[in-house]
Design goal:
Order of helices and strands: HHHHHHHHHHHHHH
Oligomer: single chain
Helix content: over 70%
Number of helices: 14
Structural class: mainly alpha
Distance between the termini: 23 Å
Number of strands: 0
Radius of gyration: 17 Å
């Protein structure tokens, strides 16, 4: 059963992993499994809704770039639409994927994808076509948005799928990461509102559930504030191979643990 300790732990996990290409939802599912929390409707809703805390950290850090940038918001809307349409239609199906086994396999597959993309870039002496978020085209935004659909499978990673799509579309490592951050804003706001509405009885039946969500979201917000800038500095210097290797190792470890 969820309590404030588990809410804090999951908030830390969410804040640390939301913007890393390692799947925040996947890590929360695995963390809850280790804490022996039942995959109830409350927990599944919690794992979605507290991501809003991390997204608010993006708004806080990049408020200056976001507040009056109409062109950027139009591109984010274009990128958001594919996920909105598919997510609304496949809501019940997606919820069925929230199990540790799915996470483990998705982590491994995604890890190999990251390593392949990075090695391919090095082999071809890749020169980014887009070196500023301002230069991301509507076509680029739509391609990244299509890739975000894959993130509905826990373990795939929303940031992971969108960053890979950005890299393949010609965005620099840092721009791919930043655009992924920004695209999370409409995506996770919509997911939070929709999931909260679909599970509104969880909040109406028990006021303590509201406090659990607030605590988890606040912890995620504070941790994400630190992680965002550190992540951008890291990938601009070292790339994504380390995250690919981590994904594979984590996936294998959890498969061994699960079976």
């Amino acid at each position: 059963m969820m309590d404030f300790f588990s809410a804090i732990v999951l908030g830390v996990v969410e804040g640390m992993t939301e913007f890393l290409p390692v799947s925040s939802t996947g890590h929360m599912i695995l963390a809850s499994h280790l804490m022996r929390l039942e995959q109830s409707d409350l927990l599944k809703c919690f794992e979605v809704v507290i991501q809003l805390g991390s997204i608010l950290a993006v708004v806080f850090v990049f408020f200056g770039e976001l507040k009056l940038n109409v062109s950027l918001w139009k591109k984010l809307l274009v990128g958001f639409l594919p996920t909105a349409i598919v997510g609304f239609a496949a809501y019940k199906v997606v919820k069925g994927f929230f199990v540790p086994e799915t996470v483990a396999y998705a982590l491994i597959v995604g890890g190999f994808v990251f390593i392949f993309v990075e090695l391919w870039h090095k082999k071809t002496n890749f020169v980014p076509r887009v070196n500023s978020v301002e230069d991301v085209s509507f076509k680029d935004a739509f391609v990244v948005g299509l890739a975000q659909i894959l993130a509905m499978i826990p373990g795939t990673s929303r940031s992971g799928s969108t960053i890979v799509a950005g890299l393949l579309a010609g965005l620099s490592r840092e721009v791919a990461a930043k655009f992924s951050f920004f695209l999370a804003i409409p995506t996770m706001f919509a997911a939070t509102l929709y999931d909260t509405y679909k599970n509104r009885e969880l909040f109406l039946q028990n006021d303590s559930n509201v406090l659990l969500f607030l605590v988890g979201g606040l912890v995620a917000f504070l941790v994400a504030l630190v992680v965002i800038k550190l992540f951008l500095r890291f990938v601009s210097k070292f790339g994504y191979i380390a995250f690919g290797l981590y994904r594979i190792l984590a996936g294998v470890v959890f498969l061994v643990f699960l079976f």
